[in-house]
Amino acid sequence: MILNIICNRDTENLDDLIKVLIISEKGEKFHLKFIGEKVIKNPSGLEYVTILADKIKNVLLVDLRDLDKEDLERLRNTGAEITRSLKKRGASKVLFGKEIFELFSVDSSRAFIEGLLLGGYEFNRYKSHVRDVKLDIYLKGEEKLEKLVAEAKTLTEATFISRDLVNTPANILYPETLAKKVYELGKEAGFSVEIYEKKVIESFGMKAFLSVAKGSEKLPRLIVMRYIGDPNSKEILGFVGKGITYDSGGYSLKRAQSMVNMKNDMGGAASVIGAMVAISKSKIKRNVIAVVAACENMISQDSYKPGDIIETMAGKTIEVLNTDCEGRLTLADALNYIIENEGVDKVITIATLTGGAMNMFGEIATPVISNNESFYKELKMSSILAGEKIWRMPTYPEFREMNLGEIADLKNVSGKAGGFITAGLFVGEFAKEIPWCHLDIAGTVMSHETKGYKKKGASGVGTKTLFYLAK
Ligand code: BES
Ligand code: ZN
Ligand code: ZN
Fold first, then answer.
1. Best probe residue, ligand 1, of 353, 366, 416, 427 (max atoms within 8 Å of C-beta)
2. Which residue of 40, 239, 256, 454 has the lowest C-beta tally within 10 Å?
3. Angle between helices 106-118 and 72-88 (to 10 degrees)
């Protein structure tokens, strides 16, 4: 679907309009003009707003009376449902009058526009017979509306980049092609991208990362994105995204069913890449560096094996008890790299790290581990603006002790209890006491149905939260 939002254009000359009405809480009917196929036959069963169709006058009524205008999530969902409904009805052009935005605050308007845009997401580039439908949404409002539309567009495009990356299968998206894609995105959005190949990664001493990568013919890449939005400041915010472009589990092989979605094991990488695009396009006054250690976790003669002891860039040693706990190994080195070699002051790790996170909160919320109260608060505020739910988990010392190895410093799997906490704390062993938050998005990376602004498939989670954190 090609969806355009066009602001404040003179629409006097547009003819053949069908009216679409929005009912405010006072019962006033505001006109939306709806251009396109004239016949609106069936009342729609939308969940977030009531949309009624008047058969005689070809009028679409959107009843906003029960809608809490400050509930940003609801507004995003409403916007998306309206877009989807317009698409279903074959609309090609629709005009929202300025009365609608007079009902909303700035944040509400932005959320509603974001929803309208998010409702247009589709991933059908691998379908051979799909006709792209086109919908132009004209918005009329005060001048500040244009700024809101621009902001919503940047964020939505970044979310779509993240969704596309996760939805793209592993035979097409692997470390080399991911790195190329990031390079192109950086060129377009205005951040620099450096791509390190195996020899350089070896010279950095990233042995844990390379141990995971060993099993695949597809060679690893270390992708470093740098955005300097405040050259006068020495402070740098760091993002590390898990970039396993496919996770078979390795010799600790996954079951067939658990493997199906493992192209999404680079969801953390997709979030940080999307965030870098949005940050850079919005020219945020902040220095941000993002790192992705991209590789595949596969089986071959050369794979690392259960029982192996491996070294890390930081010098700590790890007993590999399960080759399917590969994410914490690549993250350990990527985190050490971003702190030691890039000099970040605060850092986020974001990863599809454990099935446990999925069992805990499903696709509803992302569990977070942090070593710093005030940094967590910043992240929490950002997540609220983004409409992405996060919740901080306890980090009792008993959990940390569970990660200690028998014959090496650490072990990469530590029993059943609090699997996503111990996994997070394992990564935290490499945070060197700088403020750090870790998001386990194994549950939230995918949506299982199309509903509101979510589309079945990748959710793009994390991109917006990280954008607001930088902002
Ligand atoms: N990539 C998986 C985690 C995952 C599971 C992501 C489901 C998305 C959806 C991770 O590498 C993994 O395999 N973790 C294991 C660890 C276990 C063997 C201790 C898990 O959580 O099942
Ligand atoms: Zn795994
Ligand atoms: Zn994994």
1. 353
2. 256
3. 40
